[in-house]
Amino acid sequence: MTIDLRGKTALVTGGARGIGKGIAAALAGAGAAVAVHEREPSEAATAVAAALAREHGVKAALMTADFRDPASVAPMFAAFDQIFDGVDILVNNAGFEIAQAAEAIAVDEWEDVLRVNLTAPFLCSQQAARRMIKQQRGGVIINISSIHDSVPRKGLSSYCASKGGLLMMARTTALEWAEYGIRVLTVAPGAIETDMNREAIERFGRDKFESWIPLGRIGNAGDIAGLVRFLCSDEASYMSGTEITVDGAFLRNLVRYDDRPGR
Questions:
Q1: Residue pair 201/193 in contact by the 8 Å Cβ criterion
Q2: How far apart are the two ends of the chain, measured CA to CA in Å?
Q3: In the list 37, 131, 139, 214, which could disulfide-bond 13, CB 3.0-4.6 Å?
Q4: What is the DSSP string of 33-45?
Q5: CA 82, 83, 84, 89 torsion: positive or negative?
């Protein structure tokens, strides 16, 4: 199947690193113009946007905004409007976690996680939807969540709460904006290896992770990017309001003993 996104414009938050970088490359590879968001300007982030333009022959640019400040979202979209002619795809990928015991996490730490992981995706979705409604050609909003939007994890109360909220926000906006032809979807990755977490995976134990995942491997950014590219295409035109889990069946492996003879 060949996915053709020529004539479309996408904004990928957190698009200069990790999963977001993979998504931006997949969309550009299908012909979409891509705005890559990062918290602050850097040579590395600028190089990512330049590489998309050079390697795929599409318009690409870097957008910056610190999502810990809700007031940063509207100016980012205003800057986007100066470069691109409308928005067809928004991928809310930017996010982070703070590992902290629930009884010890500070209010400002809790609020930072919720601002970046939940408030900013809502505000970005709001800004994108306003433009999509005005354009009258529909659009797609993809929210990158986590298996921890439904499965709790010790030490990540703020992260799990933010991702659970993100899932319900996506379901609700899918209902509200369907009449405008805007599709809203959630992608929930499991264990995904990136440059940012590779060291942590090794420290925790790669073999342990892979023994827990029925498909026998930790995922990579391409596993998420390929799905997002499909969901943004006309091939997925009847999909909205749902969540797709990408985890190698990790969620289905809570009970790990095996009663099959000889096993």
A1: yes
A2: 39
A3: 37
A4: EEEEEESS--HHH
A5: negative
- Per run of 10 residues, the mean pLDDT along the chain (length 263 residues) is 94 97 98 97 96 98 98 98 97 95 96 98 98 98 96 95 98 98 97 87 90 94 97 98 96 85 81
Residue 122, amino acid: F
Active site residue 180: no
CB 150 within 8 A of CB 161: no
Instruction: From residue 123, give the alpha-carbon distance in Å to each of 73, 136, 170.
Output: 7, 20, 12
Q: Please give the radius of gyration of the chain, using alpha carbons only, rounded to the nearest integer.
A: 18
Short-list 63, 58, 54, 51, CA closest to 91: 63
In order, the DSSP letters of 37-100 are EESS--HHHHHHHHHHHHHH---EEEEE--TTSGGGHHHHHHHHHHHSS--SEEEE-------B
Burial of 131 (0-12, 13-18, 19+ CB in 10 A): middle
Nearest to 140 by CA among 53, 261, 32: 32
Tell me the pTM.
Answer: 0.95
The contacts of residue 102 (CB under 8 Å, 6+ apart) are: 157
